[in-house]
Amino acid sequence: MSAQSRSSESGLNLELGVLVGFDGSELAAQAVRYGAVEAERRRTVLTVVTAYELPTMIYPNMASIPSEPEDDKAKTEAEKTLAEAVELLRDYPGETSFRTTAGNSAGALVTLSADAEVVIVGARGRGGFMGRVLGSVSTALPAHSHCPTIVVPERSTSESPGEGAVVVAVDGSDAGRVAMFTAAAEAATREADLELVAVLPAGEEWLYWYPDLELSSEVTSRRRKQLAEGLGKEAATLSEQFPDLAVTTSVPVGDPTETLVEISARAQLTVMGTRGRGRIRSALLGSVSRGVLNHAEGPVMVVPS
Fold first, then answer.
1. pLDDT tens-place string over residues 90-128
2. Among 129, 152, 175, which residue terminates a domain?
3. Diameter of the chain by CA atoms?
4. What is the model's pTM?
5. What's the CATH number where 72 sits?
6. Backbone φ and ψ of 141, nearest 5°
7. Which family does it belong to (predicted)?
């Protein structure tokens, strides 16, 4: 099923433009509405996809073979679900494309993300998009996507927040720096301020693991100052590339996950890399990124390394 499928008008020239996964759930509908605003902002096509899994067809005898092939039935059900998205976007003035695709939901979106500027999903959904705390697609997709992923949480108070800064978590890692430049471009597109945040873990967290370590308010203050100076240099670099972008910095002290979750409530978009300087750097989706996605109160963008 498709409609108005033309090549992207954006500078990236990726034919799927803004890609949204849709399964008929209310949160998926929220993701579609969020995606519509994003596509208009980027001046590109909005592509909505419903995935369906092909059933394993094993029949003990001829009598048990259904009159309608099960793969055809699965596709028909997916098309009915996708029709709900078509109705949602009935008054949307921009370019749209609607399609169904066979396969696992997360895997299908990962494959399609290679031809998209950004992919958007709800934090949880129905059926193939439903997970436990955070939907399976919402965790697997950011870890493997070829383009940035925006996860719209159930707790988000607005489908298309237009106020507040774009906030990016910076930790000195390569992934964090890629996220920083992506966030700067996103803030420029949204005509929003950009805030660089480096969270300094509280001293008591270190003392739990290293009780013999000498920590004091003086040490914390000195380290905080060092981080602030580093962020200042990064902000200066961004200002050279984005002269109209207002960039601020902050170095809060506390648990990184909890701090970023709190920030997500006031930010119009919180941006992170897939992984940072954690103990398990090989993990596809870092513990902080996963934790923020689980509890965020606003949309979160995860940028692939």
1. 999 999 999 999 888 888 999 999 999 999 998 865 443
2. 152
3. 79
4. 0.82
5. 3.40.50.620
6. -65, -50
7. Belongs to the universal stress protein A family.
